[in-house]
Amino acid sequence: MEHSRTAIIDIGSNTVRLVLYKEQGAGIEEFRNVKAPLRLNRFLDESSVMSDEGIALLLEALKNFREVLDYYDVTEVECTATAAIRQAKNRDEIIRKVKEETAFQIRLLSGEEEALYGLSAVLKTMPADNGLTIDIGGGSTEITLFENRKLKYSHSFPFGVVSLKQLFIAEGRMKPKEQKKMAEYIQSELSRYPWLQKAPDGVIAAIGGSARNLAIVQQLKENYPPLGVHGYDLTLDALDRLREELSSLSYSELEKVDGLSNERADLILPAIEVFYQLAVHTNANGLIVSSRGLRDGIMLERIKGGQYKTAADVKRNGIKRLLKVYGHDDEHHHQMMTLMEKMVNGFEKEGLLNVTKQERFIIEQSAALFYLGEYISSSSKSRHTFYLLINSLFDGFTHSEKAYLSLTASFTNNSTLKQYLEEFNGWFTKEEIQKMREYGALLKLCYSLNSSKRSVVQDLDVKEKQDSILITVYCEGNEMAERYQSVKQKRHLEKALHKEITLQFKQK
What region holds the Ppx/GppA phosphatase C-terminal domain (predicted)? Predict the structure, then answer.
């Protein structure tokens, strides 16, 4: 299904959303996202019957979505519904009316299916092997426990941000006694399930709009680098401070909080309470925020070819996705990986570099992405590479790894590296920065050895000669461009290693 367009309609209790995707190999790319914050849960009466008004609003939104789909000529559509429709006693009537008036066939997901798709998205885009996932919707909350990247337990709790607000918050400001009652209710629900006593490895992956919005608010408070929210660590201390600061605010005051979406202003307090109570209950370190969730889980299940058995698999798939998105040159990519491996092996054999297994993995991924921004501008490829990578969605990597990789893959000289590092003050040790410099300079030399993009270099041999390094480069074909650029660029590696480098070119 290379480059095909598909869509998912997600009828949630809080938001009804249409997302259009491009499927690219073993990955997916969202390219349009249209939402209607209908809060369907509020149209369920005491008997759990959805009112005519609620059904009419849903039909109006779906008819609008039909126009969007027609405009983009998308015919492959999956229409799913969760708690609000699931809980409605007249759900059969709703499903029938939707089919008659919009031609969409609603697929009603069970709480277990909802949890499983959310977990699937986490396991295919995040590096955690063990932990919990939580997805807070408008009318339900799905929690799973996974070990060794496999589901062990799951439960769909009968409360969400809309229903909690309706149950516990009477006016335009949450009172301390209301917060206390809400916390007690959440804890009582969590306590019913013994498997929730502890989060494996202290990890809770938080899915959904509330988690993303909280992450944005906290990042603005910290003046956080522009790394996005996927993989962001929202610590328990930060969550506690947000809970303390926001719980006393009225809805009108919450609407003015930097980063907080207006449509979530009155729902963020129940969300914070659920996240906080779960973290406390399970002795977790906080939350790892996932921007991938139910819809992505459904889409990723449709695509064949990706391997996700280990965290390293997830990272490699994440890099492949980026290469697809930015149209990287496959032949040059292969040559960079080959030259990098030969160069690192040679330097290690001579005792010139001491590369750990984790560092080798990062070098490999940096080689794959090195100067990715060249397709925008060859004269500013370092800056474009850094900007693209920092602002891209990196499936599988922590934010620290993402920053390290982006800095290494965009290396041009020590001064520019220091400039890029200003956004990450205190993130890395002197030893780690020196490693970035060494690996970045080594990759730049590899890049120079394929200047003409013709893969003329066939082999490399590295030898230490007293206080200098001799690199013999075996070529097939005219190597003039490679010779010129590598002799010019080797100085960066010389400065990093404090050794003179001689390049000797030979025809193979």
Answer: 316-467
- 217/339 Cα distance (integer angstroms): 43
Phi then psi for residue 199, to 5 deg, are: -80, 120
Identify whether the C-beta of residue 279 lies closer than 8 Å to the C-beta of residue 286. yes
- As a whole number of angstroms, the distance between CA 432 and CA 380 comes to 25
Average pLDDT of every residue of the chain: 94
- What are the pLDDT digits (tens) for 148-195? 999 999 999 999 999 999 999 999 999 999 999 999 999 999 999 999
Can you tell me the distance from the alpha carbon of 332 to that of 475, in angstroms, rounded to the nearest whole number? Answer: 16
The amino acid sitting at 189 is E
What are the extents of the domains in the chain? 5-109, 112-297, 311-507
Name beta bridge partners: 463.
470
pTM value? 0.91
Average pLDDT of 55-81?
Answer: 95
Q: Quick one: angle between helices 399-409 and 381-390, nearest 10?
A: 170
10 Å Cβ neighbour count for 426? 5
pLDDT tens sequence across 470-502: 999 999 999 999 999 999 999 999 999 999 999
**Which sign does the torsion angle of CA 85, 88, 92, 94 carry?**
negative
Query: Which CATH architecture fits 5-109?
Result: 2-Layer Sandwich (3.30)
Q: Which H or E element spans position 314? A: helix 311-325
For residue 327, what are its two tokens? 């149209």
Whether 311-507 and 5-109 are alike in CATH topology: the answer is: no
Q: Is 30 exposed, middle or buried (0-12, 13-18, 19+ CB in 10 A)?
A: middle
What is the β-pairing status of strands 141-147 and 131-136?
Answer: antiparallel
Listing DSSP states for 200-213 in one string gives GGG-EEEESHHHHH
Residue 420 structure tokens: 């890029």
CATH for the 112-297 domain, from 3.90.1150.10, 3.30.420.150, 1.20.1050.10, 3.30.420.40: 3.30.420.150
The residues with which 146 forms a beta bridge, in sequence order, are: 131, 151
- Going by C-alpha positions, the residue among 15, 486, 71 that lies closest to residue 264 is 15
The Cα–Cα gap between 113 and 496 comes to 53
pLDDT per position as a tens digit, 301-353: 877 656 788 989 999 988 988 888 887 788 999 999 999 999 999 999 999 99
Ramachandran assignment for 223, one of left (phi > 0), alpha (psi -120 to 50 degrees), beta (any other): left
pLDDT given for residue 325 in this prediction? 83
Q: How many CA atoms lie within 13 A of 424 on its CB side?
A: 23
pLDDT band at 82 (very low <50, low <70, confident <90, very high): very high
CATH number given to 311-507: 1.10.3210.10
H-only helix segments in 35-142? 52-71, 83-87, 91-102, 111-125
- CA distance readout (Å), 272 to 210, 217, 276: 8, 12, 6
